[in-house]
Amino acid sequence: MMEGDIMKDFQIIIGGEAGEGSKKAGMIIANFFNAYGFSVFIHEDYQSLIKGGHNFSSISVSERKVDGIRKEVDFVLALNEDTIFKHKDKIKKEEGVLIYDKDCTNKDFSAEGFSVVKVPLMDIVNKVEGISLMKNTALVSSFAKIIGLKWEVLEKVFEKELKVELEKNIEVAKTAFQEVETVKEVEVIGEKRGELTSGNEAVALGAIDAGLDCFFAYPMTPATGILSFFVNYKEVKTFQPENEISVANMVLGASYTGKRTMTGTSGGGFALMTETVSLSAQAEVPLVIALSQRMGPASGVPTYQGQGDLLFALNAGHGDMMRFVVAPGDADDAYYLTGEALNIAWKYQLPSIVILDKEISENTYTFKKEKQVKKKEAVLAENNISYNRYDGEDISPMAFPGGEAVVKVTGYEHDKKGVAVEDAEAIKKMQEKRVRKYEKLKQEVERMEAVKVTGSGSVAVVFWGSTKGVALEVVKDLDMRAVQVLIMEPFSKKQMEEALSGVEKIISVETNATGQLSKVLQCNGFKVDEEILKYDGRPFTVDELREKLKDL
Amino acid sequence: MENIVLPTKNTWCPGCGNFGVQKAITNVISEIGKEKTVLISGVGCHGKMADYLNVNSFYSLHGRAIASGQGVKMGNEELNVICSVGDGDAYEEGMAHLIHAAKRDSDITVVVHNNRVFALTINQATSTSPKGFISNTTPQGKTEEAINPLKIMLAVGAGFVARGYVGKIDHLSRVIKQGVEYKGFSFIEVLQPCVAWHNTFADYNERVYELEKEFLPLQEAEEKAKEWDYNNMESKIAVGVFYKK
């Protein structure tokens, strides 16, 4: 790209040690482009440590919708030497630019084939007597100038994103802005398309719009962001108990009083909750769990991607029990489906799981709120002395303690009052009541969007979760058919049949080693012909998936 | 007084100590009113009380009643939450919940039916069975020392720590009522003989005595809690409110 060219699609990497603020800097850059009307997506790559190591944000910016990263990079912004060496080979020859802290290395990169801009970050910070952490401010501001962004836009973004030492940071940014020359040109392409939102934030927003009252959780990556969100959101009572077992049981306790309550965790925490998942099914007290997967088994690779908990989520909990499971693919899905998960849990009084993955939870999306979540009221009973908690043929109307009604819930098989039973007829009767309730839920799922189809090619690419972004982009380019499973349980065979009608070949794409979605499809009578699996903790890049699909 | 006992068939053994705890709890619920009260049960013989009483109840899982109860309280602060739990329940499976509820001063009342044996699963030792206790899983006698739950509760900062005995139902009812009325976490351990596997009635009748003072200052309460270590068969056993913040 020559000086003066107008850029419309590019990939940026900004990196440094943990603690240097590269993530914040990435977020600021994303905000610049969001203000300029671009679609923006950030993939966060960080390690399970507090200081040191190598953290980076991959930022995709495009005039078309973008929710995935590319292999080749237009700009690498380096706060340390490690970042340069880890990413310089991805920089596009001729067009690409490496921008780095002048003092972080004494190596020379001028013969690598891309442009190089050295910025004296510490000198800039020192000029205005700032602290070394402000080097990231100097770096993003230099970058903004290099690509010709307007100072007024920068200033607004800094004001929004920086809560501490704003004035000093603005001084640093101003100095850096004057230090470098513009070599590329980025222009405003339209109105802002949406809010930059992580999947975890979208989960929280969806839950709020569906009437969430309480959020209880124990921290666990990559679901911790939901807990952090609610701690700062006063309208939802937020609490962190001693472990996930306590969390799940507290959620049921609060739900029993009529308060919409949910939790968020990852695989290990969910494992501890499974006993209570079963209690929720038997007691018919709603239990809503956002389960964000990371690379397992066991502690696995805590801050990296994996989709290994699908079969676990579908089967967790002892006994012959029913549940609702949804699988969002990005922030918009996460918002809407979390709302649905809450509404369904309260209507059908059962466990409801939103299965996410590390990429959805922690990546940043241009969130448009395509479909508005609304709180749907549960089926309620009159609160009087003749109340029986488990009355009725399928859904038992709910009442909550505190009034005339005696409200009895229990983990034992029970009669309509909620008193334990052991005789054959009573056991059968209540089991059948729950089965009828599940049949009703299945019918409701048919009225919802359980499977989403894009395109009409004869080759279907079936996927779930965060693979959505790259899959949609690649499948469109290759004229294939994209099939995303949104509701995993109850599984809609009917919608899947329609989605696959006329298809000659089914290819599944997942970030696990055993093809868990393929197994779910197989159980439902759909044979997957080819599997593209990735299990190195990293998401697919657009280029990688394109190559793999072309090769098949 | 409204009869709050359901016509459900009662399956406790004749003479079971649980009848005494149920009597005391129904006395208290009748006084404070049942509309704003929720009984939370764990799993074990004690848990069946949830099926026997016509009151709001959450029949939780083994060991988890204290967690469920705290959730109920967070959901609706107006409710009196009485967690009726067993020793296997609260001192084994759910010990973490008990300690953390006490430490964080959750405004709930925990009533432990301590028969010092797993009864419903047919005679296995628990952490409060005395050293040397012969049971189906300790045929040679229990080798571990018993724990002293009162010492644990005082150590982690519980604001109301008491002990009662099913042989003294009026006294027990008064102690539970004080616990329910106490604003904050209240812990009441009830000595409750198991007529099938660990019948301690005769022993308790001889050794149990009521504390004279309404409650004790912390240091004195800690000393008093050491009087009986749950292992020996000689020392006196105090009942009453050991400590109130």
General description of the model:
The complex is a heterodimer of chains A (552) and B (245). Chain A is built from 18 helices and 21 strands. Chain A has 552 residues and is an alpha/beta fold. In chain A, helix 5 packs antiparallel against helix 6 (166-179), helix 9 (244-256) packs parallel to helix 10 (267-283) and helix 15 packs across helix 18 (542-551). Chain A starts with 8 loop residues before the first strand and ends with a helix. Chain B is built from 9 helices and 8 strands. Chain B has helices spanning 18-32, 49-52, 65-75, 87-93, 95-103, 149-155, 169-181, 201-207, 218-226; strands at 37-41, 56-59, 80-86, 109-114, 160-165, 186-191, 208-210, 237-244. In chain B, helix 1 (18-32) crosses helix 7 (169-181), helix 4 (87-93) crosses helix 5 and helix 6 packs antiparallel against helix 9 (218-226). The mean pLDDT of chain B is 97. The chains are: A alpha/beta (552), B alpha/beta (245). Chains A and B meet through helix 9, helix 10 and strand 15 of A and strand 2, helix 3 and helix 5 of B. Strand 15 of chain A pairs parallel with strand 2 (56-59) of chain B.
Tally of helical segments of chain A: 18
Distance between the termini of chain A: 34 Å
The shape of chain B, in one word, is: globular
Strand order of the largest sheet of chain A: 9-8-10-11-13-12-19
| SS content category of chain A | alpha/beta
Major sheet details of chain A:
7 strands, mixed
Strand order, main sheet of chain B: write it out. Answer: 2-1-3-4-6-5-8-7
Report the portion of residues of chain B in β strands.
15-25%
